Amino acid sequence: MPFPYWGENHEGQDMLREAVEQLDGAAGLLGLDPNLAERLRYPKRALVVTVPVRMDDGRVVCHTGYRVHHNITLGPGKGGIRYAPTVSLEETTALAMWMTWKCALMNIPFGGAKGGVCCDTLKMSRREIQALTRRYTSEIFMLIGPEKDIPAPDMYTNEQTMSWIMDTYSMQVGYTVPGVVTGKPVVVGGSLGRREATGLGLCNLVFAALDRLEADPRGMTAVVQGFGNVGSVTALTLWQGKVKVIGVSDVYGGAYDPAGLPVGAMALHVAKGGKVSEFPGVTPVSNRELLEIPCDILAPCAAAGQITKENAPRIRCRILAEGANGPTTLEADGILAEKGVFIIPDILGNAGGVTASYFEWVQDTQKFFWDIGEINRQLERIMLQAFRQVMALVDERKVSHRMAALMIGISRVSDAMRFRGLYP
Hints:
With 424 residues, the protein is an alpha/beta fold. The protein has 14 helices and twelve strands. It folds into two domains: 160 residues, Leucine Dehydrogenase, chain A, domain 1 (Rossmann fold); 148 residues, Rossmann fold. The chain is 45% helix and 17% strand. The chain is globular and about 55 Å long.
């Protein structure tokens, strides 16, 4: 049976191909030095590890783990850790590349990194997941640290996962190091507002886009794919902002009501273990059908590759707010642009998470913690500043929103690389 890092994961290959094609397109528009562009097409380093776990039935199962540093010119690596059966070296490399542009776009002093383990934690016990996490941490120990690489939660990881990583790292060095990860519980050095930051940051941009389009939020409808940390906060924030949320979904399916969903009550329902499609009074729909519901705001906040050339012609929205990483393929992006959809690209749209992670890292480093008001003010300031810069470049160069965001991020990284030079 071939190992995942032997290139058998076609989704990961597609993601990496798209990430490199985006880089090549932006480099051409920027007139980037070919030598710099060539360096940016490859990660600085990639570590592949075996993560053996003793299962509850006594078997030892070996999983494959990864940690990739794409570029750390601007600062230590920053990027999530995901646990999923789709995790591969190609996927991890693509996500690390996007993290490089995202951190530079937000003008925060981090480089791009990403990691993960190819596994299915939905079929594992809590003890097995803890053993997996601690062994994975010990295997990538040489790459991570507050000044080297700071992981964060991602798909199927959470604040408990980050706590286990922080504890394992601290046991290795002999003292407590809260700054080795972000997305931790507040009691062990986490930051207020970190869990909500990605969804809240996305909504800051949605409301800014509505203002640019001179549209009143109270007359808008929204559909949100995904009801995890990002999707649920996005739906709740839009709903609280008087936007009518008519569709939401989780991994099991979706719920639709043209009259508007009671998002607050649905969030409580899901928190108690319920599925959104089983909420009383809703019309169940599939995740595929959900994306094609006519609406003003469509927010894909689940997985990559959800909007493709096949379904893009049937997407009917005014604003596409990308809360997930890579939810729209390159072919679909062109179709939506031709239709005049206002796209908030992922490296801008979901950057609230890494921005709040930066806040957490700063607080851990300084041993001084902020209140929630300060965190939300700084988050809004940075998100809207990046939004205005992207829109200014769109107006100046007549490029797509996605390309403008990429151009800003790539130009900042390449400028720093040029000043630093090539060692030796």
